[in-house]
C-alpha cells in the first residue's frame, strides 16, 4: 500500500526514535529518497534494512518528515475522520463537550492527538484552525467535511488562521480566511464564566484555552486577597479570582486592546467588581508595588521561540520572577508560568529558584502545573509539553 508514495530510507541507527513512536524525522537521519516529493506530500519511511516504519508528511526544513501513522494504512477520508473523532471522544470523556458550563475547548492538539502540526479550537459552534505543517494544510477541505459530520447543525463557521504559522516562502500562500461561514466573534462559556473571543484580531486562536484548569485553581486561592494579574490578555485569571472573592483585582497588559477586552470580560460576568485594568509594561508596573499584592500571576508570552535564544529567555524568567518575589507581601502566593516549548520544566524551575534565592525569600512549592486534558502530550513526544507553572507560597 505504501508503494504509491516516495520511499525514504533512513541511515542505520536513525530508526530508533521512530520505533519508539516519536513522529519527527530530522533531515540528518535521511540516507536516500527514491523520488522528489513536493512539500506537503505523503512519503513512506523505511529503515536501512527495508522495513516499513511509517507514513508522514514531507517538508523542507530541519524536521523533514512528520509521521502520522506507524502502520501501513490508507490515509483516506475515513482515516483522518477517525483521528478527529477519537480526539473528540477524549474531550467528551472528560466533560468538555457538555456545553452547559464550558463550550470552548481544544479539539485537536497536533502530535498529542496524532496529526503533527494541526491545531483545532472550538468556540461554541465556531472552529478555528491553526496549521503548522504544509501536509496538514493540504487536509483543510477534508477537515471541513469531517467537522461538518462531527458537529452537524451546530457548526457555524470554520476559520483558518495559518498565515503566521506556515513558512512564508513555501509552496502554499496561506491567508487567514473562512472555510465556512463568517462569524467573527462569540461569547463563550468556561466553567460557567463568560468570555468574548475574537479569533480574527485576537492573539493565537483568540483565547488561551490552555489555562482553564489553572484559572480554576487560582479561584480557590483568591478569597480576601489582593490580586495582580500580569500579562492578563483577555483577563481569564482576573475573572476567576473575582468569582473566588478577591478583595481587589488589578489586570496589567502592555496592549491597550487587551485591556479593553479584560474590562469587557469582567463586565460580562459581574456588575460591580473590585477590578481595575492598566495598559502598561509589566516591568515598569512591577517596579513600584512593594507589599501591595498578596497574590500575583505571571503568565508572560513565550520568552524563547527557538533554542538559540534559550539562555536569554531563562534570564528573562529569572528577572521577572525576582521582581515579583521582591515585591509580594509576606505570606503571598505566586502563580508563575512559562509557555516556551524550548524551556524545560527543570530549566524553568531553576530560573524561578535562582530568582527566589536572589530575592532572599523563603519559598514553598504548593503546586506544579501543566496543560489540561485537551492539550494532551503524547508519551512518545515529550516536546508537546510546553506549559509549565508553579504555585508558590512566599513566606
Ligand atoms: N494570561 C493570559 C495570556 C497571556 S498572553 C490568559 O490567561 O489569557 C501574554 C500577554 O502578555 C499578551 O496579552 C501580551 O500583550 C502581553 N505582553 C507582552 N509583553 C508585555 C510586557 N512587556 N508588559 C506587559 N504585557 C506584555
What features would you highlight for this structure?
six-stranded mixed sheet; alpha/beta; 20 strands; binds S-adenosyl-L-homocysteine; 3 domains; Transcription Regulator spoIIAA; seven-stranded mixed sheet; 28% strand; Rossmann fold; 395 residues
Structure notes:
With 395 residues, the protein is an alpha/beta fold. The protein folds into three domains: 2-69, PUA domain (Archaeosine Trna-guanine Transglycosylase, Chain: A, domain 4, Roll), CATH 2.30.130; 77-189, Transcription Regulator spoIIAA (2-Layer Sandwich), CATH 3.30.750.80; 208-394, 3-Layer(aba) Sandwich (Rossmann fold). 28% of the residues lie in helices and 28% in strands. The chain contains eleven helices and 20 strands. The chain has helices at 16-19, 77-93, 110-113, 134-137, 140-151, 212-220, 236-243, 256-269, 282-286, 310-327, 345-359; strands spanning 6-10, 24-26, 30-34, 42-46, 52-58, 63-69, 104-109, 118-123, 126-131, 157-160, 177-180, 185-190, 193-198, 226-230, 248-253, 275-279, 295-298, 332-338, 363-369, 388-394. The protein has a seven-stranded mixed beta sheet, with helices on both faces. Helix 8 links the parallel strand 15 and strand 16 (275-279). Helix 2 crosses helix 5 (140-151) and helix 10 (310-327) crosses helix 11. The mean pLDDT is 96.
Amino acid at each position: 500500500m505504501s508503494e504509491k508514495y516516495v520511499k525514504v530510507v533512513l541511515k542505520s541507527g536513525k530508526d530508533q526514535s521512530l520505533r519508539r513512536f516519536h513522529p519527527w524525522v530530522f533531515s540528518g537521519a535521511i540516507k536516500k529518497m527514491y523520488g522528489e516529493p513536493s512539500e506537503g506530500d505523503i512519503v513512506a519511511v523505511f529503515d536501512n534494512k527495508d522495513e516499513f516504519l511509517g507514513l508522514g508528511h514531507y517538508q523542507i526544513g530541519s524536521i523533514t518528515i512528520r509521521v502520522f501513522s506507524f502502520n501501513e494504512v490508507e490515509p483516506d477520508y475515513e482515516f483522518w475522520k477517525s483521528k478527529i473523532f477519537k480526539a473528540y471522544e477524549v474531550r467528551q470523556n472528560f466533560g468538555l463537550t457538555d456545553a452547559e458550563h464550558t463550550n470552548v475547548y481544544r479539539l485537536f492538539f497536533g502530535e498529542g492527538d496524532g496529526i503533527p502540526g494541526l491545531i483545532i479550537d472550538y468556540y461554541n459552534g465556531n472552529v478555528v484552525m491553526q496549521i503548522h505543517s504544509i501536509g496538514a494544510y493540504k487536509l483543510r477541505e477534508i477537515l471541513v467535511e469531517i467537522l461538518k459530520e462531527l458537529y452537524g447543525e451546530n457548526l457555524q463557521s470554520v476559520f483558518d488562521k495559518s498565515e503566521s504559522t506556515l513558512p512564508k516562502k513555501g509552496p502554499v500562500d496561506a491567508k487567514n480566511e473562512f472555510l465556512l461561514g463568517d462569524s467573527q466573534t462569540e461569547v463563550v462559556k468556561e466553567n460557567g464564566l463568560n468570555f468574548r473571543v475574537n479569533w480574527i484580531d485576537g492573539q493565537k486562536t483568540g483565547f488561551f484555552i490552555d489555562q482553564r484548569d489553572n484559572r480554576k485553581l487560582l479561584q480557590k486561592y483568591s478569597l480576601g486577597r489582593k490580586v495582580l494579574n500580569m500579562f492578563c490578555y483577555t483577563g481569564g485569571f482576573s475573572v476567576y479570582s473575582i468569582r473566588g472573592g478577591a478583595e481587589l483585582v488589578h489586570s496589567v497588559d502592555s496592549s491597550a486592546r487587551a485591556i479593553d477586552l479584560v474590562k469587557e470580560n469582567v463586565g460580562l460576568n459581574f456588575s460591580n467588581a473590585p477590578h481595575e485594568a492598566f495598559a502598561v509594561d509589566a516591568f515598569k508596573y512591577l517596579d513600584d508595588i512593594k507589599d501591595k499584592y498578596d497574590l500575583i500571576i505571571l503568565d508572560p508570552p513565550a520568552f524563547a521561540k527557538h533554542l538559540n535564544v534559550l539562555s536569554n529567555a531563562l534570564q528573562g524568567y529569572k528577572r521577572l520572577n525576582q521582581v515579583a518575589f521582591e515585591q509580594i507581601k509576606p505570606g503571598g502566593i505566586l502563580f508563575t508560568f512559562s509557555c516556551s516549548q524550548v524551556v524545560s520544566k527543570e530549566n524553568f524551575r531553576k530560573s524561578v529558584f535562582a530568582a527566589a534565592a536572589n530575592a532572599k525569600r523563603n519559598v514553598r512549592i504548593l503546586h506544579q502545573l501543566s496543560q489540561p486534558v485537551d492539550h494532551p502530550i503524547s508519551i512518545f513526544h515529550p516536546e508537546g509539553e510546553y506549559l509549565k507553572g508553579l504555585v508558590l507560597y512566599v513566606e
